[in-house]
Specification:
This protein is of the alpha+beta class. The protein folds into two domains: 23-102; 103-268, Thrombin, subunit H, CATH 2.40.10.350. The protein has two helices and twelve strands; from the N terminus they run H-H-E-E-E-E-E-E-E-E-E-E-E-E.
């Protein structure tokens, strides 16, 4: 009842007034000062938590951007790999078409599935075997040049011995009969690998045969081992051979043996089709 009476009295006292008494102004200013002092830290705390919420949103956006960039990078790498592979396959297709126009050969494309790390047996393995018509002593080449010969054959895979590993001193040595492109009826020699100097050499060149630097050496087809016309390499020097009766040319191999991906097994017309 006392509270109600005071409330009604104050209501009646303040009704119709337009101004405040000095106690009311004092109380109002004091309350305003306290409110201002409290509002700033409360506002700062509120802004802090609001910034935390925004920081969380920014973190999520950055995470999404990182994932997008990672996917873009992977797609770009994949695209470049596909583009390079397509270019390589197109070059190989042009290679086979060009060779088909020159000689009656078939080229079976094979993937290199293994490469021996044994320094005394640097062979490579391909994914074609006897079921595909592969036979020993078939020539293996790339778009650049001759790689080697098929040495052993199983049903689904074959082993290829590079020309740098052919042993001319062995009993079953295979001689690579070679000639100069454009002078097939004039030039003749035997190509083997000089392991000491790590270069190919074309020996037994006639003293009247002027083999010069830059000549392109290809297989001659003589000996019925390797088909003719397969690129071996380029002459980089020529010197007098044994007793001054013959010449020996040093040859830089055309094939690149370090990173072989695809190779071609050369099938001649006298070999049964697979």
């Amino acid at each position: 009842m006392i509270g109600l009476i005071l409330f009604v009295s104050l209501l009646g006292f303040s009704y119709g007034r337009t101004g405040l008494t000095w106690p009311e102004r004092f109380v109002n200013d004091a309350v305003g000062t306290v409110q201002e002092a409290l509002y700033r830290p409360v506002g700062a705390v509120s802004d802090f938590f609001r910034d935390l919420g925004r920081l969380s949103d920014v973190y999520e956006e950055n995470e999404q951007l990182r994932q997008t960039v990672a996917r873009y990078t992977q797609d770009k790498i994949r695209y470049n790999m596909i583009e390079n592979e397509n270019k390589r396959l197109q070059d190989e297709l042009h290679f086979t078409e060009r060779q088909k126009q020159l000689y009656d050969y078939r080229y079976l494309i094979a993937q290199v599935i293994a490469s021996s790390s044994n320094p005394y047996d640097k062979t490579i393995k391909i994914n074609l075997g006897s079921n595909d018509g592969i036979k020993p002593k078939m020539a293996v080449t790339t778009v650049d040049g001759l790689v080697g010969l098929v040495s052993t054959v199983s049903e689904f895979t074959s082993t290829v011995t590079p020309i740098s590993e052919l042993d001319s001193a062995s009993a079953d040595a295979i001689s690579i009969a070679a000639t100069v492109l454009g002078r097939e009826d004039q030039s003749f020699g035997i190509v083997d690998y000089d392991k000491e100097n790590k270069v190919l050499q074309m020996s037994k060149i006639d003293e009247n045969d002027q083999v010069v630097e830059g000549d392109l050496i290809v297989t001659s087809g003589l000996g019925n081992v390797l088909p003719k016309g397969l690129i071996i390499g380029t002459v980089i020097s020529n010197q007098v051979g044994d007793f001054g009766l013959t010449h020996t040319a040093t040859i830089e191999p055309a094939a690149k043996f370090d990173h072989l991906n695809e190779v071609f097994v050369v099938v001649t017309s006298d070999v049964d089709a697979p």
